[in-house]
Amino acid sequence: MLVVLMVYTGEGYSTLLRLVSDIRFPAIVAGMCAVVYARAFWRARLDTVGYRARANAGWRTLGRTLREFSPLFACMAIYEALHDLTPVLRPDIVDRHLVAIDHAVFGTDVGRWLNDHLGSPTFTSIMTYCYVSYAFAPPVYAGLQYFRGKMDAFRDFSLAIAITAFIGYCGYLLVPAVGPYIFQAQLYPDPLTDWGHGGLLDTLNKMKGSARDAFPSLHTAMTTVVLGLMWRDARRLFWTYLPVALGLYLSTMYLRVHYAVDVAAGFATAALALFLTNRINRWWHDRRPVAVPAQRTTPERETASA
C-alpha cells in the first residue's frame, strides 16, 4: 500500500533515498551485521572445523538475524517515507481540535504550563535526553533479548512494535496534526535553551519537518510497549528504564512536540498493541501442531506383546 501511494503521489522516494544514502543508517546496519557475523563465526569454532564451515555458519546466522529484525527496519523505513507522504495526502491539519480537547480537560495548554512552571536549561537538557532515549531503548532491548536467545520474548516484542507502528501510521493519516511547536508557534516565542532550540532539539525538529505525526504520540506508545514487555520478561531492566520513560512522557509535552491528548492516545495505542500481540501469538501457537515423540519399544514391551 505504501508503494502504491508513493507511485501515485510521486512523493516518499526522496526520503527513502536519503535513508539509504545517508551514511548513518547503512553504518548502523553494517555495524550490527559485522557484530552478528563475527560472533557466529567465533562461536562456530566449538562445533565445526575449518574456515569455510565457520564462515558458512556466520552467513547463516547473519541471514537469520536480518530476517528476524526486518520488521523493525521496515517500521523505520515507512516512518521516514511518511515524512514526505503525509503532507501530500493530508494537507489539512486538525490541530485546533486537539488543542480544544486539551483545553476542555486541563483548562490550559499543557506544554505552555510546563514551560512556565518547570522550565530551566538543566531541566530542558534532562527532558531532551529522555526524549532521545526513544531512538535507542527499543532496538537495544530487542538486541538483548535476541542475543540472549530469548526468542519468544524477542518475537513478542517485534510483533508488538510492528502493530504499534501500524496503528500509529493510520493515526497520522486519519488525524493529521503537526504538533504545538508548529501550530502554536505564537504561544512559544521563548526558545528552549541549552539542548533545546538551537541545539539537539532543533536538529530533531528539522529532521521531522512538517510531517503529520503528532497523533498518536508514538514516543509514548513505543516506550509503553517496551515497559510492558520489560515488566513481563526483564523486570530489572524495567526498573532501570522506568525513570527515563516517565521523563520521556513528560518531555513530549514540555518540548512542545505533542499535545496531552496525543500522549493519552499513545497509551491507548500501546495497550491495544499489547492486547493484540498476546491474542495473535496465542492463536499462532495454538494452531501449530504439537510434535508427539515417538514411543520407544522396550524389550519388556516386546516380550509382553509376544
From TrEMBL:
Gene3D superfamilies: Phosphatidic acid phosphatase type 2/haloperoxidase. Coiled coil: none annotated. Keywords: Membrane, Transmembrane, Transmembrane helix. InterPro entries: Aur1/Ipt1, IPC_Synthase-Related, PAP2/HPO, PAP2/HPO_sf. The chain crosses the membrane at residues 23-42, 157-183, 214-231, 238-257, 263-280. This is Membrane-associated phospholipid phosphatase. It is a multi-pass membrane protein. Residues 157-278 form the Phosphatidic acid phosphatase type 2/haloperoxidase domain. The keyword Membrane applies. It comes from the Bacteria. It is found in: Membrane. One of its GO terms (cellular component) is membrane. Pfam families: PAP2_3 (PF14378).
